[in-house]
Amino acid sequence: MVLKNIIFDWSGTLVNDLPPVMGATNYILRKLGKEEMTLDEFRAEFCLPFTRFYERVAPGVDPRQLETWFHEAYIPLQDKVEALEHAEVFLQFVKSKRIRTFLFSSMHQQHYESLQGRIAFNQYLDHPYVGVWDKKARISELISKHELAPGETLFIGDMVHDIETAHHGKLRSCAVLTGYTLLEDLRRSEPDLIVEDLRVLQGLLEEANWDWDAVLEKSNGVK
Ligand SMILES: [Mg+2]
């Protein structure tokens, strides 16, 4: 089946925002009198929907308070967000093939918009959905609104929640290792394919002429 649509996750897939997100999370932990997390601890513990993460590390704390603290710490750190190395070339490649593109991210709208001056990926994303806290709960709405054929639609993300969302919508799925989640954890979520980064995926798509079954045949063993 030839792909016609791509749904992108944002953090860890198109941009690296790990330093500010981890910094803001540790700020919250300090406010709560808890120990800060190391990078390894953060990568092992952080999950989406992030409400589930905070129920675990900050049980009983008002989510609005958590959000206020998060913004306080995140905004001064947002200059540290960077485009991932192969992201823009991949987006240009996708647009040159007239693929329909979607963004499906839990990122706060205001944080997303304030980045566009510096990382103008919005020009490549036909339908940006931001502020999506629980992607699994909202994927059906996106599929039906845009009449997406699941076999022609690829979800690319760096977290287990992204892959679970793809499975829930019966979409094709590709996990990238440029983000928050480590290989073993991603493997357990059983994506169709796991790639090091978007450049590897681009090579496979080019070679297979965008036929997803052919991509999986050619990449046999990558997963
Ligand atoms: Mg992500």
Describe the structure.
The protein is of the alpha/beta class. The protein has two domains: 149 residues, HAD superfamily/HAD-like (Rossmann fold, 3-Layer(aba) Sandwich); 63 residues. Helix 1 packs across helix 4 and helix 7 crosses helix 8. The longest helix has 14 residues. The radius of gyration is 17 Å and the shape is globular. Bound molecules: magnesium ion. Magnesium ion binds next to loops.
Give the assembly state of these chains: single chain
What percent of residues adopt helix (DSSP H or I)?
40-55%
CATH superfamily of the largest domain: HAD superfamily/HAD-like
| Average pLDDT level | 94
CATH architecture of the largest domain: 3-Layer(aba) Sandwich
The total of helices stands at: 11
Low-confidence stretches: none
Order of helices and strands: EEHHHHEHEHEHEHEHEHH
Q: Which structural category do the helix and sheet elements fall into? A: alpha/beta
- Main pleated sheet: 6 strands, parallel
Which fold does the CATH topology of the largest domain refer to?
Answer: Rossmann fold
Q: How far is the N terminus from the C terminus?
A: 20 Å
What is the overall silhouette? globular
Descriptive key words:
223 residues; Rossmann fold; 2 domains; two-stranded antiparallel sheet; 8 strands; globular; binds magnesium ion
Task: Describe the structure in brief.
By secondary structure, this protein is an alpha/beta fold.
Question: What topology emerges from the helices and strands here?
Answer:
Elements lengths: L4 E4 L6 E2 L1 H14 L7 H7 L4 H8 L5 H12 L7 E2 L3 H10 L3 E5 L4 H7 L11 E3 L5 H11 L7 E5 L2 H9 L3 E5 L6 H6 L4 E3 L2 H10 L4 H7 L5
Parallel strand pairs: 1-4, 1-6, 4-5, 6-7, 7-8
Antiparallel strand pairs: 2-3
Bound molecules: magnesium ion (MG).
Magnesium ion binds next to loops.
